[in-house]
Design goal:
Elements lengths: L17 E7 L8 H11 E14 L3 H10 L3 E7 L1 H22 L5 H7 L6 H8 L2 E9 L3
Parallel strand pairs: 1-2
Antiparallel strand pairs: 2-4, 3-4
Helix pairs in contact: 3-5
Length: 143
Amino acid sequence: MEFRQGDAQALPVPDASFDAVLNVESAHCYPSIDPFFSEVRRVLRPGGHLLYADIHGAGEVPKLERAIGASGLKQVEHGDISDGVVAALQLDSDRRKRWCAQSAPRFVHGPIDKFIGVAGTRVPVELANGGERYLTYVLRKPD
């Protein structure tokens, strides 16, 4: 295994370099999802897979699905794991809150609690009420 730093919308690798691309909780930060999917299609070998998991605002899901449809990648699987993520965040909330209290200066506890999804913060609340969705996809580059 080798790690390289690069831009997900301009990967520093030749065409058809990978059997699989893994993207977890980062694509929602890209300026545009379309160049990312183009780049994934470029770097995957025929028959290669994109394994994707990310959180999206409920109103953004149709745009994401249009981008997937236009990407030239074929959808193999799709799931909405929002309920499971909410349950996991709830079960682990006290441990993460203690970790923050022990590891970080007090003045950053609030922002860190939000970032790590402590119960009652925005991410678990929005996932629970449907305002955000945690989606998974397995996409395949055609042969």
